Amino acid sequence: MSIDLYYTAGSAPCRLVLLVAAALDLQLALKPLDLMAGEQFKPEFLKLNPQHTVPTIVDDGFSLWESRAISRYLVTKYGAKTNLYPEDPQARAVIDQRLDFDLGTLYPRFAQYFYPQIFGGSPADEAQLKKLEEALVFLNTFLEGHKYAVGADLTLADLALVATVSTIEAAGINLHPYPNVEKWFELVKSTAPGYEDANQKGIKQMQEMIAKLKAKTEL
């Protein structure tokens, strides 16, 4: 039985789940939701997720949302023998720290800087840009001396962070000042299973959406 994934392709959290599924070679039944059209508020979806967010999975009747919770669940149930989320408590703790950094710092700082420009037509806020740049400096420091985000193996931390970093790059933020991030980014793009289908296709859709929204605000 396949797992249902309710998602929006351009969403970084949704792309994280797609990357995890690809790494685990899991079959997903994709259920696209048009958030702009309000499909997330349909009664049948609210029964699955009263918070009406994506991504949401349904695995044999079990419904779960929030991308990092979904990712941990999928690896725990279907990929316990992989290196994505190892049982060693210290390795797992560092992965959790990186996931929390992505959730609580890196992605929100990007969103606070970029989304008001795209969805609200606001001018770029230099103070918010500085906060985003600081978060990228943090990530660059975390990666010093490491092949991947947590040591020598690809983990959930890399998949979460690459979904965010690829979004940041696609929005036109230059990664060149962060050499460790650039090097790591190229490595993950070339080694994460199914990267092109799981992440890059969604990036292209995001870029198309950005172009359309920019065109509207420039009228």
TrEMBL record:
<dbReference type="InterPro" id="IPR036249">
    <property type="entry name" value="Thioredoxin-like_sf"/>
</dbReference>
<dbReference type="InterPro" id="IPR040079">
    <property type="entry name" value="Glutathione_S-Trfase"/>
</dbReference>
<protein>
    <submittedName>
        <fullName>Glutathione S-transferase 9</fullName>
    </submittedName>
</protein>
<comment type="subunit">
    <text>Homodimer.</text>
</comment>
<dbReference type="Pfam" id="PF02798">
    <property type="entry name" value="GST_N"/>
</dbReference>
<dbReference type="Pfam" id="PF00043">
    <property type="entry name" value="GST_C"/>
</dbReference>
<comment type="similarity">
    <text>Belongs to the GST superfamily.</text>
</comment>
<dbReference type="InterPro" id="IPR036282">
    <property type="entry name" value="Glutathione-S-Trfase_C_sf"/>
</dbReference>
<feature type="domain" description="GST N-terminal">
    <location>
        <begin position="1"/>
        <end position="82"/>
    </location>
</feature>
<feature type="domain" description="GST C-terminal">
    <location>
        <begin position="88"/>
        <end position="213"/>
    </location>
</feature>
<keyword id="KW-0808">Transferase</keyword>
<dbReference type="InterPro" id="IPR010987">
    <property type="entry name" value="Glutathione-S-Trfase_C-like"/>
</dbReference>
<dbReference type="GO" id="GO:0004364">
    <property type="term" value="F:glutathione transferase activity"/>
</dbReference>
<dbReference type="GO" id="GO:0006749">
    <property type="term" value="P:glutathione metabolic process"/>
</dbReference>
<dbReference type="InterPro" id="IPR004046">
    <property type="entry name" value="GST_C"/>
</dbReference>
<dbReference type="InterPro" id="IPR004045">
    <property type="entry name" value="Glutathione_S-Trfase_N"/>
</dbReference>
